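=== RUN LOG ===
request id: a7f3
mode: sequence -> structure
chains: 1
length: 271
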Amino acid sequence: MVGVDGLRAHLLGARLAGVVATSREASLRRYRAFAARDPRVLMGVDPQGDWGVSDLVALMAEKCGVSADPRCTSGHDVIDPERTVRALDAFAERVGAAARRRAPVLIGTGHPHRLLGFYAALADALSAAGCAVLTPAQGRCVDITTRFGLRTYNLDYVRGVAFVREPAGERPGCATGAHSHSPLPVRTALAGAAEAGGVLPELVVGDHGWVCGAGQLGFEAIGLADTDDPALFVGQAEGVVSVVVPLDDGVRADYYLPLTRYVLNRACLSQ
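=== RESULT ===
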């Protein structure tokens, strides 16, 4: 069992919080792109407010603990571990509530190389609690515009967790899927679930476009986000996203395992 003190120490030691690898320069580039309404950075959120760069810096300082000083333009970002712990508690409460009412859930990630294990453990526990872990539209093609142009991916699932992968033969060895910010995979999955009167999720869990895209469509959505992913925090501020956990989303996959144990314990779910 992982307690609060142990979790806080792990967050700092693994650089999931505290001084993280994400640079201030990278975050500011994303804030500028978000302010310019770049769809690649919006991740499916349709902001109602007029979010300028200074507004985003202030929001991320409040939600993550990054520097609120606009003169800070270089170095590494900092995430306040207390904010991460509080958000994980809220995240666990939503997961536990879904388990208690045996709600159907959809889980997806744009970071399959790093976060698949974290989400798969949640899927296993929710399934054991009687929740239907949905896997709609498996194998369906999703056309996503990337910096390299329009590319076609396939929607896939491993242990109940959705992600996109390039078609067989395109990128040999890409077994764990592709990194993606797009909301199109979750829209494809939800459309597939709705076909022929299928079951729709009562909770969507994930990151990037999975959370923003689902939340924008009115589904309860919770997830994880780094300091250079302002879309999820704007979605939370505007009531589109329910819970966002600030942390570095690009560290080693096994570093997320203590977070899994903490969330399952707080949600009163078996592991």
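=== NOTES ===
The radius of gyration is 18 Å.
DSSP finds ten helices and nine strands in the chain.
=== END ===
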